[in-house]
Amino acid sequence: MSDGHPRPGPPAGGAPGPGPDPDPTYQYWQYGQADPYGQHAHHGHSDPYGQYGQYAWSQDSQQYHQSHLPHQHQHPEPVREFHHAPQAGWNGWDGWPDGAGAQAQQAQQAYEFQHPADAEPARAFGGPEAAGAPAPFVPQQSQAPSPQQAQAQQDAPQGRRAARLARRAGAPDGPTGASTAAPGAADGRIGEAPPQGRRAARTARRGGAPDGPAPAAGARPRGGGGQGPQRNHRWAGLVKGVALCAAVAAAGMLVLRAGAAVEGLGGSPAHPGGGPDTAAVAVGAGAVPDPGRVVQIVAHPDDDLYFMNPDLRYSISAGHPVTSVYLTAGEADGVNAAPAKGATTKGATAKPDKPAYAEARQNGIRAAYAKMATGDRSSAWKRTVVPTKGGGHAEVDVLVANPRVNLVWLQLREAGHGYADVPDSLHGLWDGKVARLESMLSSGTPVKQRFAYSKDQVVQTLAGVLEQYTPTTVRFQDPTPGRYPDTKQYTDHQDHFYGARFVQMATAAYAKDVKDRPHFAVQNYVGYFNGSLPSALDPQEAKEKLDSLDTYAWLDRQNHCGSDAGCGDLKVSDHPAGNRWTDSINYARGTGTNWLTSDKDHGLWAFKVLDGQVAVWHRPGPVGAWRGPDLLPGTGMDPGASAVTLKDGRIAVFGTRTSFGARPTDYRREVVHAVQKSPGADGFGEWQSLGTPETADETWTSDISAPAVSVDGTGQPAAYVRDGAYGLRGRVQQADGGWGPWEKHGGEDLHGAPVTATDGAGRRIVLSATSKSVVGWAQPKPGAPLGRVTATGLPDTTLPLTAEGREGGVRLWFRKPGSGNVRTALMTADGGLKVNHMTDLGGLNGFGSVTASGHVLAGRAAGGQLGSEVGPGRPWGRSPLMFVGAPSSTMTGKNMVSLAVVGLDARLYVTSSADAPDAYLAPWQPVGPRNAAP
Length: 934
Fold this sequence. Notes:
Distance between the termini: 36 Å
Shape: globular
Number of helices: 13
Number of strands: 39
Strand content: 15-25%
Mean pLDDT: 77
Structural class: alpha+beta
Radius of gyration: 28 Å
């Protein structure tokens, strides 16, 4: 959002506010306390930055309040900057998921930040190492654990139970990794004392850590040489422990192999198997999988709160490292007041002051994140400045109480209007109407030197941020939101989707140029149009989402941040919910549930987009070892892929691909597919384009849905998309292998992506959600064209639909608006499309797509984890897995169901269940090693 409202903003081209002092010096300061130089800090004094957190560290122990105001007497102080991706063990971090223990022991590299006037520049986000850097140093003080970490420590099993769980855990590369190490292990955790006395001896005998804390990196062994019988006794215990672990691991491998064989051969419900990933460790009901690292990039302060929550809150609550990046300052017209109250609002900016209003919005964001992470909106932040790879500077804020939460402010000018022609904007920069877009620095930012970016420099800056944080999940807004059919105005703010296009280019550059990185997945979010769709959240989730917006809107006007600019965004204070945006959340892409499939040999295939390419995981046969992810050649793939089995047994993968072209108008999104070279083969052919029904990007912003694909009883495949005019379009493959033209099938007010499946007679049925109901199309017989669009009479639904051929027809699953409960109805095509009995199946609230195969039904539950039901009438269960996009399931073997998700760590997780009334889900298995460099 720009100003919290989708109405027109101020006239284009407003002059920027007064700039900050171009030649600042720096001071460490804490609100309400005496500063290091003997002066008392009080309200109204500035807080220029002290380095802290993921990118910077101050060796002083001062903490920083949110107030950062001008006119403070300043004193020079050296400022340091980290020049590598965040490492475990420094600045209170518990460590990244991969190699946390080893990283915790490493000394951290740090280099002095130079003022722009100094001779030697500081290293940028993702930039090269600075020459002549000072010697590295190790931070001297650790931070307290987050509330989530403290709770995990309290809940951690102790004594014999811990030993039993350790023996059951198996190989060390499982989903919990270092985070589930025994107390005292070098995993970067804080607050756990090593076992003492007899308990320590028992731990050693059972294969745990040696008694006593592990020595620091580089420390000499205590006591010099041998320690006589006592040392020999400990060695004997360790040897026994290792032997026991080896025996247990061998037995576990046999169990996994046996379970996989039973699964593939359609074993009994009592022994459904645990999945064939022989190198993986099961994720039990109480285990915590690899959390991954989340970076989300939005255009304005509050876009994340309106359009990415509750995903944002779920990630913070789960203790995941979360970094939010803001492209623009969100300065709007510079008036921090509710529209109806104007300049009379106490505590608001009486006159237009763009830097102050930008600061107020930043204060509101900091308060909202602090409350989500700690429960205290005034929890302190460290604000610092780092040079960017694009040649400018960014402000980086780190939450002191939970340093896993970071904010990055790029502070470019915003358009100030949702759709008007504003050359000085991200849209104007993209189209080449301006060569460079200037910065708009907030009044309290530690960034003191103005800058401007070209189009390439914006991309470089974002790619540098990604390189620094090495995310496994990247969240950003919808780059193709469409237009309203009557007014032809954009359905979303131009900053939102042109900002998203810059992020698209940045993720592509990051994937191409940075090799030493983990795989990453992408999630896109619907913006303003959420207000025109049925509510996706249940009342409790909507209330918690609104609570964050209430904090951001600064409803009580109390100066808790100590800033003259204000502690929040008063423009939205009269209606923090916006246009019903707090009632909903919708993914713009990646909602399909047909990306997991099986072959005739009971093998499994999974297809998801990682690094802008389609990743393939494959388990050959019922007992083979999983392989993958292997990336199919071809870049630019959008989130979401679907798989279908052709008549000859080969698998075809469909998706959409974005290309940028040499000119801004060359931006293009098209449907593509790749076909397996032969049934069961690992190789796939080249991507073939089916084009797009859109004539030009400018017409509908390339707004097409992901393709829905099915094969009818004649073996004829067809692909369907929702086009930018909100109708259904489709292409059918001909007998000679070619594809027919994009045909119009009618329909209006279609939203999201259509779904399709074939009934017992081989007839294709296509279904699509509207803002009020569901409509459908059906073949009168296999091989015939689709019939006309038919209203189903179903009540309104949330957007994602799931369809599967069963019971002679096609069963449809969807969610009840304002509830999250799952509903289902059977669609039949005898004598035209008909609906047969809608049923409410309940659930664990939540939102988004559900997947169904056999007796298994699964989808995102409230809290963000995967919820599942195994059999009608049985209670829903909740797994610890948080995941990207939608889950997928398929029938495997004679009577088995396989279920899969891709976690926020961009890693595949699979489980299975017998398709029987008394079945249960086996423990989740992560496929392959922990996500590190590809």
